[in-house]
Write a structure and sequence with these properties.
Number of helices: 10
Order of helices and strands: EHEHEHEHEEHHEHEHEHH
Shape: globular
Distance between the termini: 7 Å
Strand order of the largest sheet: 2-1-3-4-8-9
Strand content: 15-25%
Structural class: alpha/beta
Radius of gyration: 17 Å
Helix content: 25-40%
């Protein structure tokens, strides 16, 4: 490790969410004395998002334990390959891509029928680009089934859309080829599906923990998810 510095757990949210989705886990990690940051994932595309998160990693003194949820798993896989201070990876109901794979090729079949497309200005004249969000009426069913309806409704109307490039851009070098990794699989995950989460985690050689939770298992089961992160943190400290 770098001197006596403990690794900082950097929590990276996925699409249709924001850094507040890590609030329960952040609180518990702080209580355990673990340095932690929950960062904003721009959700503009694999390359841009990974470069941004890599810059966050690079600016943190000492080692980093990178933790990604959902699409955040794609981002930490790429970002950790761009820096030299990431010492471990934790995937929480997350995609764990191989080099050359795009999220659009593997995303769960249950999620896509609930996704709606909209346009946003690119800032280049009258040009627009596509971004995607989840139909608020379907959000609870496919994304957050084990949260209360009220919690899910708040998430649905405050969700952050993801640009089309998050689905279409191919993943770069996979950091899990050289770093120890852990994975949380939500057995009631309808957005990604536990089978896909499990198979991707196995491919990466991750230490897998299965938890009875939806796609937002870090919100519905923060104690159990924090326990996995603490186990990873202890292993790389």
């Amino acid at each position: 490790m770098s001197g006596s510095l403990l690794p900082t757990a950097v929590l990276v949210h996925g699409a249709f969410a924001d850094a507040s989705s890590w609030a329960g886990v952040t609180e518990r990690l702080e209580r355990a004395g673990v340095p932690v940051r929950a960062v904003v994932n721009p959700l503009r595309g694999v390359q841009a998002d990974s470069a941004y998160v890599a810059s966050v990693f690079q600016q943190i003194p000492g080692p980093v334990l990178a933790v990604g949820h959902s699409y955040g798993g794609v981002v930490i896989t790429n970002a950790a390959s761009m820096v030299d201070n990431v010492v471990g990876l934790v995937y929480v109901a997350a995609f764990v891509p191989e080099e050359g794979e795009s999220l659009g090729e593997v995303v769960g079949s249950a999620l896509m029928p609930a996704v709606v497309e909209s346009k946003y200005p690119t800032g280049q004249g009258s040009q627009t680009a596509s971004e995607f969000s989840i139909d608020p009426a379907k959000f609870h069913e496919v994304f957050a089934g084990d949260l209360s309806q009220q919690q899910s409704d708040v998430m649905a109307v405050s969700q952050r859309p993801a640009a089309a490039a998050t689905l279409s851009e191919k993943s770069g070098p996979s950091a899990w080829n050289r770093l120890q990794s852990w994975a949380v699989v939500g057995t009631a995950d309808k957005a990604m599906g536990p089978d896909l989460a499990r198979s991707m985690a196995r491919r990466a050689g991750a230490d897998i923990t299965e938890i009875d939770g939806s796609h937002v298992v870090m919100m519905s089961q923060p104690d159990a998810v924090t326990e996995v992160i603490l186990r990873a943190h202890n292993a790389v400290s």
